[in-house]
Fold these 2 entries.
Entry 1:
Amino acid sequence: MKTENINHEFLDGVLDGGHADVYYHFGVSSEDALLEPLRDVKAVIMAGSGGRIKEFADHWSSLNGGSEIVAFPKEDRFVTRYTAGVLFASHGMGMPSASIALQELMRMVFFLKRGDLAAMDEVFWARVGTSGGVGLPGGTVVVTSEGVMADLKPYRLLQGGSGTYWFDSTFPAAVYDAIIAANSHTDFEVVSGKTVAGNEFFLEQFRLDGALRLETEDSKMEWLQWLHDNGVRNIEMEGAMMAGYLNHWGFPKFAMICCTLLNRLEGDQVTATPEQLHKFSEDSGVVLFNYLKSTLLS
Ligand code: URA
């Protein structure tokens, strides 16, 4: 961990009892007894939708002999479950929403591990989601090697009017390689590649089917081809931020696993059937759980 990038000014006071940390959007605080069983957390798994989080927690519990599932009481923003060493939390859609979830979860992990940097090094983080494929058909699972924004540059935020904060949004190679190795026998393709995080589903992903249309067929195809030529394999809305923040604190183990819903070189609308979408979504879960089984259950 990079202790110099951790907000010790605020967080150390939580450890020494000076003040509580309120994880407002999760509806819990560091003083809640509900968090006590989570001290043993080994992995934090994030996904966009709350329904997915409940399914993941149920599945992980069944793989762990029906382990007890702890549910956080507040569910109007994010849905959260904990079972058998894994904290599952939804993050909503897009980087503004997901950054709130991630920052509160990072603070929570700091509290749960009592600020022990070696213990925090051991925590695995992942986002499991959906994406648009770039040159890949729907149903492919992409394990991200590097998060980039729509201009192929790393994640960054405006520093007010004076400049830009840049973040390292690469993903650790040892982890994406291990995830792919744990999934050598699936009946669907699992590949690694760069992933664009768009700030918008329509405009910053160069779609022509939004209410607003700023691109042409030519400029869209030119952008998608440029992405493909530069190693991008899918487009979603959270990964570059997630890698940027986790790298900032120095977490060594994290990944993003996204199924593709369509091939953006062939269109903009998601026309897969509900059955196909269900299978796509299940497959990214299969990739996650094959990896979790190989690391946490063996
Ligand atoms: N999610 C995205 O952000 N883009 C897509 O094309 C599909 C899912």
Entry 2:
Amino acid sequence: MKNRNAVVTGATSGIGLSTARLLAARGCNVVLNGLGDREEIERLCAGIAAETGSTVVFSPADLSRPEETRGLIAEAAATLGPIDILVNNAGVQHVAALHEFPEEKWDLVLAVNLSAAFHAIKAVLPSMMERRWGRIVNTASVLGMVGAPHKPAYVAAKHGLVGLTKAVAIEAAPHGITCNAVCPGTVMTPIIERQIAQQAQVTGLAEDQVLNTVFLQRMPTGKPVQPEEVAEMIAFLCSDAAASVTGAAIPVDGGYTTH
Ligand code: NAD
């Protein structure tokens, strides 16, 4: 993977940050995108660059806006050169019963978790096709494979992302490009920590009880997945060794989807 140019969206924390770190450690130059404090994230990028010897730069593009998503890819290509690897990982969640679900939250969850991947893929494909090599990985979820209550937008977006993965895989395969999805179970990152805190407040349960009874209940391993474990799967899918894996939705879920 030495000298491959990669864009990782939603890489300012959690799974995306672990992925950006790992790709940089394997020799990729990385544009790390996400929200957060600019100075802090630029220090983080400088730290990863110093640790790995790879170029690591930050883009604060807001992927709820299609023009910023297209801008991210254009800016990344201008900074690093043509993009070889795209990891669509940015995600947001909103939890509410469907009959009370705010319409603007539906639009936001669909925009960030699904439409941003479409806009980014559309923007990188022409140069990947020209160079006859490319790797696209979409971070879906177990909720891209099964349903769950009170998360209608997220479940719909992640199922849509798995569908988009298959559609892209078929069109891109003749050009040496693969497109896959990873489907994590519960991973201890800010997106889950916020939900645990919310549910603890609503139910009156302690946070570790919420974790065990709600978030780990369907995972036979009984413990959260680590962000680094998901990053390892993503990095494999970005490697030459994974050339024949395409259109797949691969669970990294402690057995969540086995039953
Ligand atoms: P996280 O909250 O640590 O990371 C989310 C990332 O997305 C952050 O970098 C955030 O800045 C970025 N982001 C949010 N809105 C954005 C926007 N408008 N524009 C650009 N970036 C934006 O959570 P995470 O768990 O690392 O989530 C990463 C992906 O993994 C998400 O797609 C999430 O749905 C998925 N996922 C997470 C879990 C889990 O249990 N944590 C399980 C399955 C799937």
